[in-house]
Amino acid sequence: MEQSWKQAKAAFAAIAVPPVAWLVLFFLVPLAVIWAYTFGENVGPTTIDFTGTFANYARALEPLYLDIFGKSLIIAGLTTLLCLIVGFPVALAIAFAGPKLKSWLLLAIMLPFWTNLLIRTFALIAVLREQGYVNFALEWLWNNASGFMTLIGLQPLGDYEPLTLLYNNTAVVVGLVYVHLPFMVLPLYSALDRMDRSLMEASLDLGAGHMRTIWSVVVPLAAPGIASGILITFIPALGAYLTPDLLGGTDSQMIANVIERQFKRANDWPFGAALSFLLMYLTFIAIAAQAFIQRKAERRG
User: Fold this and answer.
1) What is the pLDDT of residues 123-138, one digit of tens each?
2) Contacts (Cβ under 8 Å, ≥6 apart) of 14
3) CATH topology of domain 65-129+165-300
């Protein structure tokens, strides 16, 4: 028995050592190097001296960068809220769909993952730009309405002025919702699909309406999926770089764009590293808060 246990430990070690070594060498070690940069300072164009200074963190807490952090938190929070509002009915519809339709709906949700994010973002630009499909459809409706008003003897509406839908905060939020919506739908669907539907039937039989049943029965039962969806959506949205870079204007940049500029353009790696780890600390706080809320809910349950 003891010999078999030793053989099992040896087999487990043989399987575990390569991925653990890969994780340490190519994830933890580079992360530790970047963390060490947060306590360094530039002493030359390509030289960093590890002095143990906290000046980079102090600079990152200046009002300019705190405003960017705050704006990033607001945009990520709004994105998460909109994904939840849109994603919950979608996940509910998928959970209650028939087997064949459910497969097709899940395929439609996962289909964006098969396309590069850059291509999807440029496709959204083609939809939102001044000569894009949204303005094209609105111009067509405008011209038809103007023609109808002329036909009945009223003053026509005049020339259509294209809407400015790109290079602002609204475009960034729309783009982030477009990108991160599947991350909200899939955890919600997973929670709703495992739900005991007899509780919903009992609620309806006792006289509660559909909306009351969803709010009082479905939402509490789906709380773990909601919490997971919020976390999985909020964290990538907070660190989003490509979407605000392509869809946002000069006043729509998020903290990840500032970090990119420090590493690539300003060549200030210590300060960029400090901003990166402040973002990581915020991520850890969000994960800890989600774990605390989930543990508290389980104790109540």
Assistant:
1) 999 999 888 888 888 8
2) none
3) MetI-like fold (1.10.3720)
